[in-house]
Amino acid sequence: MKIIYCGTEYSDQILEILNDAVLNSTALYDYDKWSDATMQQWFEIKKKGNFPVIGIIDESTDELLGFGTYGHFRYRQAYKYTVEISLYVHKNHRGKGLGKILMNEIIRNASEQKYHCLVGIIDSSNDVSIGLHKQFGFVHSGTIRETGYKFNRWLDIDIYQLLLPYPENPVRG
Q1: Which of 27, 115, 157, 160 could be 120's S-S partner, Cβ–Cβ 3.0 to 4.6 Å?
Q2: What torsion, rounded to 10 degrees, do the Cα atoms 136, 5, 34, 128 define?
Q3: Mean pLDDT over residues 44-65, rounded?
C-alpha cells in the first residue's frame, strides 16, 4: 500500500467508489450516480481550493483502495479556516484500517494548511464512520433530524468536529 495524491488519472476509480456509496448507502445523500462531467467539476473545485485528494493504492495493481479529501464547509468568508472532510474506502477493502490511515493524512494535511476546524457530516446510522471520527478526537456537535430523504425514509445527520490549534494568528479576509 502507498499513500498518493490523486489527480484526474484516478477519476474513474474515485467515481466507482463514490457511485457505490450513492447507490448502496447513506454515506452520500445523492440519488443518482455521478457522471464523468460531475467528477471533472469536482476535481476542478479541489484544484482551485488547494484541497488534496489523498488516496491509498495497491502498488502492484495501481488499484485505488480508498480516498479522503476536504473542501469548503460553507461559502462565506468567515468560514475560511473550516473545512468539511470526506473519506471513502472501496467496498472490497473495508475493515482493513485504511480509514484510519486516510483520516490521519487528512488531519496532517489540514494542519499543514493551517485550518482550524474539521467538520464531518455523517449519516446518524453510520456507526463505523462515527466511531472512526471519535477515535481521532472529533466530538459530536449536533444532530439535524430528517435532513435527507433516501431509500424511502427520512435520514438524520450528526455533525462531528475536530479543532486544530491553527492558525496561531487568524486574520480577516
Answers
A1: 160
A2: -20
A3: 97
Q: Residue 32 and residue 92: Cα distance in Å, rounded? A: 22
Whether this model's pTM surpasses 0.90:
yes
Banded pLDDT at 173 (limits 50, 70, 90): confident
Q: Is the omega angle on the peptide bond into residue 167 within 30 degrees of 0, that is, cis?
A: yes
Which CATH number does the domain 2-163 belong to among 3.40.50.300, 3.40.1370.10, 3.30.420.40, 3.40.630.30?
A: 3.40.630.30
Cell of 109: 494535511
pLDDT(85) > 90: yes
